[in-house]
Amino acid sequence: MGQQTMIAEKLAYFFDAADLGNVFEDWPEEIGLVLCLDDAGTCEMLLHHHDEGRAVLRKAGALLDRGPGEFAVVPPVEGYPTRRVMFSDEQKLLALVADEDDLAEMAADYLINYHFEQDRKARERREKEAARAAAPKSPAPSSEPFFWRPRLHLSEVRAKRQPRPKAPDIPQGYVPAEAISEVECFFAEGELRLGRRGVRLSLAPELVDIKTCTRLVQEVGFRDDLSRFVLPRRAVEGWQPGEPLVIDIPQERFPAGLRARFSGAARVAEVTITAQGVFVAPGAVIPEPEPAASEAELKAPVRRRRFLTPVRVAVVLLTGIGLTAGTVINAVASPDRPAATASLVAFDVSAD
What we know:
Elements: H1 2-9, E1 10-15, H2 17-21, E2 31-38, E3 43-49, H3 55-64, E4 72-74, H4 87-98, H5 103-134, H6 154-157, E5 185-195, E6 198-203, E7 214-216, E8 221-222, E9 229-231, E10 245-249, H7 256-262, E11 267-274, E12 277-285, H8 295-299, H9 310-333, H10 338-351
Parallel strand pairs: 1-4, 7-10
Antiparallel strand pairs: 1-2, 2-3, 5-6, 5-11, 6-10, 8-9, 9-12, 11-12
Helix pairs in contact: 9-10
């Protein structure tokens, strides 16, 4: 009875890539998903690579706070209890997964980070093997006895005390120029903004598209005045200046004040990359682009005021003079019709 109660409390339900491919169109073929459930209604989602093997069970046990064999697993796994799940319950669990709109994007990021970590481990193994191969081998033991004979007198090995170099007059945290003359250093401009994935640092943001590499970085450090922060050097491993790159940092890693600062508009990021890390200094707010005019505004007729051009003014004046002269002549010839002629002149001028 105790084991059956335990099974009901904790359950790890595994979905493979084929199941998830029916829900998400762009689900990676190498990534699976585990739902970690308990009777309190808590559900944790755990992404994993199919090459991780039983290590996924250790991660699921950590989420469920249970040791190996102390929680149920579906489909069955040797060494773990299991339980029967009805088809209707499976559909409910699948619907719960389908509600997570950004789950496929997170799976793609997990695949990128997994391959990056595997490449890093393989590179470290190769470097260690090369170092062992290059290490000088100890000579084979000789059967003849070895006698050490000193070649220097005590007075000869006493070195004169060298004067201690004077410390440069620069503050702590800065390095003298002669010490960094050959240090690797890159500069880049980026963009900082707070989104649903946390604080996002984009290098060459104008070139970022759906094919751009996205990396999730958990480690972040801050200067004492919080004016800049630093990421591990491996966050830009393989990146070349001028190429686009997206780095996401969980927002809970940042103090509340910085989260509030990044929650508004995007900011310029001045990035310095050295062997010690990736140093980021947030800068000014990036202004939002002007909204484009709507189609109705573009099609609306433009009302144009009519202005008298110099030619038109000259024509009007000449016409006025001619009409006035005609009025005078008519007035002389027919004194009994001046009013009618005057009204005709007024009508012609206003019509023009």
